[in-house]
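Writing this down once: the sequence line spells out the residues, with the fold written below as integer tokens. This is how one looks:
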Amino acid sequence: MFIPFLVDGIATKYAWQRSSRDQPELCSNLGDNVTHTNCRKCFEGKGDMVQIVDPITGAVSTTDIDTPELPGGIDPTSFLFTMISISVLFQAIAFISLGTLGDYGDYRKRGLVAASTAGGVATCMYVIVPADASLYWLGGVLMIVANVCLGVSVVFYNSYLPLMVDDSEEVKDAIGGKGRGVKNERDVIDAQEAVSSEYSSKGQIWGYVGGTTCLVLSVIALLVLVALGAEWFWALGVTSALSGAWWLGFSYFAFRRLPHRPGPPFPAAMNVYTEGWRKTYRLLALLWRTELNTFYFLILFFIFSDGYSTISTIAVMFAYHELCMDPMLLALIAIIVPLTAVFGGYAWLRFQRRFGWSSKSVLVLNLMLLALIPLWGCVGFFTEDYGLQTQGEMYVLAVWFGLCLGSAQAFGRALFSELIPAGHEADMFALFEITDKGSSWLGPMVAAAVRQRTGRIRPTLFYLLAAMVLPGAALQALDLTESIENARRSKSARGAVKDTELAI
């Protein structure tokens, strides 16, 4: 949560240090009893501005701060967005390149241990960054390392799920014929799907609980450190390091309890580091030849997934720079979003069952509702009274975002599952995850370019609006009926599902 503030703040501090100018003093630091001129003040909707007071009339005006640049002419906040974009891109590359390792040899646990340890240590090293503003680049490098390690750890973490499912009592009973001594393929598949959904849901819920708990403890630690007189950036570095310690600490339990469970040896003719790329290409080529509409869905998913992911990425820095929100207040928003996302997932599921809507229809509706967030922000170009111009709007939109985000993610996955033919579940969901992670670098790069060119983050909202409205409209027009029916027939042939009517 606090790492972006640390990297952005340290980079800005160094930019001023290397320039020949002094950063304007905060007006609030100069006393409240005098109207000060040429000092820095944050105005909701505009961000940091230089306050100018006419010595004769006392009239107050403002002007933009001419923030100096980092080496290479890079704006400090653009540097942050660029590092985020690079880290996510490298994460996607690692996801594809190393995904095969979890299925062969003894890499399942070794990979999880190595990636989690390296990521946790890299995050702990943020305590070093505030020591010298010239280390701003280290903050960016650590961000790349931590994000890549997170992606790699997820690869090996996910590889345990099929093993855990097959080792469950429910699946064992189904394989054993539930006391009848007769194995039924349909019973086995139903049990696997039920247990997999249960384990995945519980894992996600506990992930939200753990993340929220870590965030609350981090906020408390930051408040205590600041109250004790700690320098702001140093306090941010310590708090960021605590999240790394949390990562390492809870990974230790996984390291202790999880078995090695080695997979089969590598096939002699297979290069493990290129197999993921070959498999991805083969799957995409197969979809292009046989299920073109499913291929189109993945393209649309690539775009709108980047849209709502980028909202999460830039919202914090937008609120910080342009709405003058304190990091503590933004931490509250970071808590609101996952909590409302859990509630929204359940609420939209009940909505679907109540009105009989298809997964596609609910997903399109969620995308249109999510698009209202950047649309509302774009209104701010034409008025200074509303349109993401005040802090209060952020709390309302955080709730709105959470309610729709959880549902969009859930129904996106649900719709894709309806398109998967029997026997290709693992490969297709791997492709789904690759598409998801492979898109999330694009939005931050757009934000970096916009900030570099304009000095503002708000124009990025036009991109976010297009990234959800256009693929949402295209998805609504895309006829997936035949693809879903083809997938259902393949499953029916294996006795995996009942014949039910599906309308798109």
